[in-house]
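Q: Sequence in, structure out?
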Amino acid sequence: MGGFIAIKQNELFGDYRLREKICSGGLATIWLATDKAGRNYALRLLNNNFSITSSGPKMFRRGCEVMAKIKPHPNVIRYIKHGRKSGRSYMLLDYVEGANLRTLMIQDSPLLHDSLSDLLVDMAGALAHVHGNSFMHLDFKPENLQISRGGTLMLCDFDTALPIPDKPAKLPRKSGTPLYMPPEIAKGWEVDQRADIYSFAVTAYELVTRIKPFEGQSPQEVLRNQLNPKYLIRRPRDLNPNVPVVLDSLLMKCLSFLPDQRYPFMAHVLRDLHKALGVR
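A: Exactly. Output:
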């Protein structure tokens, strides 16, 4: 560990001054940083507590490389650069002042009621763009959707992203978050971009109903229901009668247990969302 520098508030990291720690996870810590002109950025630093055999550093670097290859899009967090300095791998991103979708749902933010249709379309648009750049995200969930104070949604955290295979293929390792993970990943089956379509639908279902599609008295029971092909998901309209019929059907199709019964492409989901919600 001797090659690492200690990271402290108000110190310089390269050309950027670390102003405030935004959040810290198992893989990386994100700082609000400013350049010499006072412009704000999000500086993501790889944590330095990994063992020699850990896959964490490789995952972090892969996420950086994926973001560098994805073309800019208004609903994907803007990548600026990545590299290594003073023994620490880092990635510089746009700083988005706001909160993630999970936080806003817990707060029951008025923004979610006022901009619901736009948020759903932005979610789908971000994922369709990532797929259009030949990558699967593989960890689509409310915590990875940052929403600015102005209501713009941005997809972030590409550490688990992988190229879309020519045909469904087994993943090198299980990726994602259990309650948003499609059955094919949880069961170790072959996977393609339709895994993201399922995770999008779980997130969208939760946004419009405020509950997850799989219910249960404990996390274990919820997970069992999720992996049970015979489990009957309650339709979104049964929980929220304001959900349009077409949106209800769209989400249920995306939540199909078998990938072949879902939409084949996120671009098709986005097309039908526009029709269902009347949003351009």
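Residues 116-132 form the longest helix (17 residues).
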